[in-house]
Write a structure and sequence with these properties.
The chain is an alpha+beta fold and 701 residues long. It folds into four domains: 211 residues, no CATH class; 93 residues, PDZ domain (Pdz3 Domain, Roll); 237 residues, 2-enoyl-CoA Hydratase, Chain A, domain 1 (Alpha-Beta Complex); 122 residues, no CATH class. The protein is 42% helix and 16% strand. Strands 3, 4, 5, 6, 7 and 8 form a six-stranded antiparallel β-sheet that branches. Strands 9-10-11-14-15-18 form a six-stranded mixed β-sheet, sandwiched between helices. Helix 7 crosses helix 8, helix 7 runs antiparallel to helix 9 and helix 8 packs across helix 9. The chain is globular and about 85 Å long.
């Protein structure tokens, strides 16, 4: 059980290949195109998955017409999320089968999903031919038209004429993106021609397994976002990730609309160490060392991954649209050297922040934890010196104690989780025994994981930093520290991933040894804090909030379709170590007073507000002159606000956003603010007379 939970982080981030393709069934098909059909093992595998979803998923949801309708919507949306291919007449034809998918699945009848794939294949070839014809005629960028980049809720085009108008606007936007990045007109035309030709080529490269995986993935997502089907190929990918032996760039990728998007950087991997690639960045081109860059917009994820992967110590070049900058972002090229993800590079690290209080220097230790890790193989082999998060943090805390720290910050920003066992044992370093997390299964049975040793390694002032990317095991640790009253939690509301997955090998149910069936990643339980509150969907709410980029609609469990709901169960029997709630008004007031007078903090607030405005703008001009001016104005404003922040720390200004992005001297404004808060906590807890004076001073203002 624990090993299954320990695999949670990799399960959650395992590459899921959702591809475009189709085959014959009850819907009319273009017989001039090759028709894909289910493979021999697919009907049996489909029935097996249906049974497992019905009886073993946490929700135990019956296969019925309501679920069938959700699956149809999820399947169609996954194939054409921005409504660039299907016509309204296609959707009307598909809807005739909305309430039949459950019955057909139980019968092993996969004709409808394969027929829908075939229809998309036809439409994709049509769109490819149309786009190439538009390029031949030339693209008019002296226009007053605009394009909404978020077409997820748009009406399906009524006919080909309306679809053609949509595509003319899309082609203009694609051309503008390249031209404003500095490409010549001839190069832009060549790149777009290759891109649109590639759309049709990618259709022909897809196979029956891709169709089956896409459809069964829609069934899984209809239950919850973390339940999915892994094809035999994806199962092998998962094994590679679990062994951490993949030679690549150390990034988790997904297909989002027509782009390959970076979901997460694996701590210790080449991309994480390099610092240029960030979550949310979109990869639009891949090149091998000195070879020509290949445009990969619209490519299948597996094909993009194959291009990025390569021999250790070889170079790969990525053409990237940065997440920061939104629709105004210009592509840039990143060079990375492929390598293995080393456990050593994922390890916790320490530093010290110094804060002045009442004429004295308060030393605040900082321990950054990128992931909850453990060298399980070494531990099982009997190695007494095996590495783990808890062991490393305990060692770092002893070293910091020798350096006479007065308070401690545990930095979990960007920590996507990992070993649940490590989250539990790490909590035990700060509490004197007791429960850490509750795990509840669908039948109501609840398991409580406890800190068993009953000893406290560090009992001083403690603050935990979190952000929107802190998930799973990070939320368990932060929630336990908060529930026990052991420390403060500051930052953003966390991701909200409070479910447990198990990986079911479907091959063990099959009598056909010649055909692999893949695996089913199945949600089987939920996490609950010792207070009884679930971490699902709501995450951990910090005691003190920091300004941040507005990511709630795209990052976090609450942004996912069909996320399991937040709920509560009975609290565990535990004894809080303290109650910091009474200190919060003074801590908050001092933080607000300090940050309002801190030019660096205020510059950061303005900078984030500007980034949020850019990120939330989806409608863009298709006029070259206007778009260029908007991009230049946006870049200038971002630089102005970033340089105001740098000036507050007496750092030289940057001339462009790329230099800013790569600057190694960028101040961590939020860490400094957290050190200030922790120093206040230290003074309030150790020197009540000073705390009383602070309260009086603030009350008199």
């Amino acid at each position: 059980m624990h090993r299954l939970i320990q695999a949670d982080r990799v399960l959650r981030t395992a590459v899921v290949l959702v591809v475009l393709l189709f085959t014959a069934g009850p819907l009319a098909a273009d017989t001039s195109l090759e028709q894909l059909a289910p493979e021999q093992q697919h009907p049996e595998t489909a029935r097996l998955i249906a049974k497992l979803l019905t009886y073993q998923h946490f929700n135990q949801q019956p296969m019925d017409d309501e679920l069938s309708t959700r699956v149809m919507d999820a399947y169609v949306d996954s194939l054409d999320p921005d409504r660039y291919y299907f016509l309204a007449e296609d959707i009307e034809e598909f809807h005739a089968y909305r309430e039949q998918l459950d019955d057909r699945l139980l019968d092993g009848d996969l004709s409808v999903p394969y027929a829908i794939f075939n229809r998309l294949r036809e439409r994709t070839v049509e769109r490819s031919e149309f786009a190439l014809a538009v390029l031949e005629d030339g693209v008019d960028l002296d226009t007053d038209r605009t394009l909404d980049l978020d077409r997820g809720e748009a009406d399906w085009p009524e006919n080909r004429e309306e679809m053609n108008r949509v595509w003319r606007d899309r082609i203009k936007h694609d051309a503008l993106t390249l031209l404003l990045a500095g490409e010549e007109e001839e190069q832009t035309s060549d790149l777009l021609r290759s891109r649109y030709e590639g759309m049709a080529k990618n259709m022909r490269r897809s196979g029956s397994e891709d169709v089956f995986e896409a459809f069964m993935g829609a069934w899984g997502r209809a239950f919850d976002p973390h339940t999915s089907y892994l094809s035999p190929r994806n199962s092998r990918e998962f094994d590679i990730q679990m062994q951490l032996s993949l030679e690549g760039i150390g990034a988790v990728l997904r297909t989002h609309r027509d782009f390959t998007e970076v979901v997460e950087l694996i701590p210790g991997g080449p991309a994480s160490q390099d610092g240029q690639l960030q979550p949310g960045d979109r990869i639009i081109g891949v090149g091998q060392e000195d070879e020509e860059m290949v445009d990969v917009v619209g490519w299948r994820l597996r094909d993009v991954v194959d291009l990025i992967r390569g021999p250790k110590e070889s170079e790969v070049r990525l053409r990237v649209l940065p997440a920061v900058g939104g629709s105004d972002a210009s592509p840039r090229t990143i060079s990375l050297v492929r390598n293995e993800v080393a456990l050593e590079e994922q390890a916790a690290q320490k530093s010290i922040e110094e804060v002045e209080r009442n004429g004295e220097t308060v030393r605040i230790g900082v321990i950054e934890i990128p992931a909850f890790y453990a060298d399980f193989a070494a531990a099982q082999a009997g190695d007494e010196d095996y590495r783990s998060t808890t062991r490393d943090v305990e060692k770092l805390m002893r070293e910091l104690a020798e350096e006479d720290i007065h308070g401690l910050i545990i930095d979990l920003r960007g920590n996507a989780g990992g070993s649940l066992q490590e989250a539990s044992s790490l909590t035990g370093l700060f509490i004197d025994g007791g429960p850490v997390v509750q795990i509840r299964r669908s039948g109501g049975d609840t398991e409580v994981l406890r800190d068993q040793d009953g000893g406290i390694t560090y009992d001083g002032p403690l603050t935990v930093m979190v952000d929107r990317f802190s998930a799973s095991a990070s939320e368990i640790f932060a929630g336990a520290i908060q529930d026990y009253g052991r420390g403060l939690v500051v930052g953003e509301r966390t991701f909200g991933k409070g479910t447990v997955q198990s990986l079911v090998d479907l091959n063990r149910f099959s009598n056909d040894a010649d055909n692999e069936s893949g695996r089913l990643k199945l949600t089987i339980a939920k996490f609950y804090r010792v207070s009884g509150s679930s971490t699902q969907k709501r995450g951990v709410e910090p005691d003190l909030h920091f300004p941040t980029r507005d990511r709630s609609d795209v990052v976090g469990e609450s942004a996912a379709d069909n996320a399991l709901p937040w709920d509560e169960i009975r609290e565990a029997s535990y004894r809080p170590h303290g109650d910091l709630r009474g200190l919060m008004p003074l801590l908050l007031k001092r933080h607000e007073d300090r940050s309002s007078r801190d030019p660096g903090f205020q510059a950061l607030v303005e900078e984030l507000d500007k980034q949020n405005t850019i990120a939330n703008r989806t409608v863009v001009s298709l006029n070259r002159t206007q778009r260029s001016q908007e991009r230049d104005d946006s870049t200038a404003k971002q630089l102005e606000k970033a340089n105001r922040r740098r000036a507050a720390y007496e750092l030289p200004p940057m001339d462009d956003l790329e230099d800013l992005r790569m600057a190694e001297d960028e101040p961590d404004v939020l860490l400094k603010a957290t050190a200030d808060i922790t120093a206040d906590l230290y003074v309030i807890q150790r020197f009540p007379s000073i705390a009383n004076r602070w309260s009086a001073e603030l009350a008199s203002e």
